[in-house]
Design goal:
The protein has three helices and five strands. The longest helix has 16 residues, at about 1-15. It has one domain (about 20-80): Alpha-Beta Plaits, CATH 3.30.70. The chain has helices at about 1-15, 35-40, 60-70; strands spanning about 20-25, 45, 50, 55-60, 75-80. The strands form two sheets. It has a three-stranded antiparallel sheet with strand order 4-1-5, covered by helices on one side. Bound molecules: iron/sulfur cluster.
């Protein structure tokens, strides 16, 4: 019973307090090098352009997506906190 309450409180904390981030790929800038897909599985190729599987991510997924942003040679990826 107490374990169930603890799990419920953790879930509420996740929903209420964890930050969310928006992930986007500018298709005009993307050159289709696929570097982002090698560092984060949230990025997939669609034809010759990359796209995020999830456009809104949790704090837990931030590091991986930020690495995708950092490896993009043309700065096509943006990971910004959702307000
Ligand atoms: S790293 Fe940048 S340019 Fe390369 S596929 Fe990903 S979004 Fe496109």
């Amino acid at each position: 019973m107490q374990l169930g309450i603890a799990v419920l409180l953790l879930r509420i904390k996740e929903v209420v307090f964890l930050k969310k981030f928006k992930v986007s790929v500018d298709k005009e800038l993307c050159i289709g090098c696929a570097a982002c897909t090698t560092v984060c599985d949230n990025f997939v190729m669609e034809g010759d352009k990359a796209k995020p599987k999830k456009a809104v991510i949790s704090e837990k997924e931030f590091a991986c997506n930020k690495e995708g942003e950092n490896v993009c040679p043309v700065s096509a990826i943006k990971v910004v906190e959702e307000k």
